[in-house]
Amino acid sequence: MRVTTAFFVAMLVAGCGAINQSVQIEDGSRVEGNVGTVNGRIEIESGSRIMGEVAAVNGAITLTNARIGSLHGGNGDISVLGGSVIDGELRVRETRNEPSEPPRVVIGRNARVGGPLVFEQGVDLHVHESAEIGAIEGAEARFFSGDEPDDR
After folding, report:
1. By mean pLDDT, which of 6-10, 26-30, 61-65, 101-105 is the weakest?
2. I want to staple 60 with a disulfide (CB 3.0 to 4.6 A). Which of 77, 95, 144, 152 is the partner?
């Protein structure tokens, strides 16, 4: 976990969170609880396992070849990449401060979301054709086949 200057590398921790800082879970780490931040991004790196929820209100969330319990976002972009797995739901909650652009949600190559994808606000949803996902509520998916969606 990186909170500005500190981070955990391949460690077992009970849970972690921050208010106005970013969180980075380094390769191979295991978190038994939840990971969250209010105003900062979250990066979960390769081989990491988060048993609980990963949540950010005003920051991007990126999973790269990681496994988590569930994901709850707000105003930030969400990227589920490199064969990452979300065992439960992926939810983008409605927030008090509407973002200038809708959050971009990318479910990448070989990624899996075991539960529903629930969107309480508008999002720009891109799903790789190889991804396995649950039911989608509140958004229309645009499917892609390359390494990244071609919208940028």
Report:
1. 6-10
2. 77
Higher pLDDT, 10 or 111: 111
Residue type for position 1: M
**pLDDT at position 3 over 80:** no
The residue behind tokens 């959050």 is: 103
Number of H helices, E strands in the chain: 0, 18
The reported pTM is 0.90
CA atoms within 13 A on the CB side of 52: 13
Sheet of 23-25, strands arranged across: 23-25, 42-44, 61-64, 78-81, 104-107, 124-128, 141-144
Residue 141 C-beta-side C-alpha neighbours within 13 Å: 19
Q: How far apart are CA 21 and CA 41, in angstroms?
A: 8
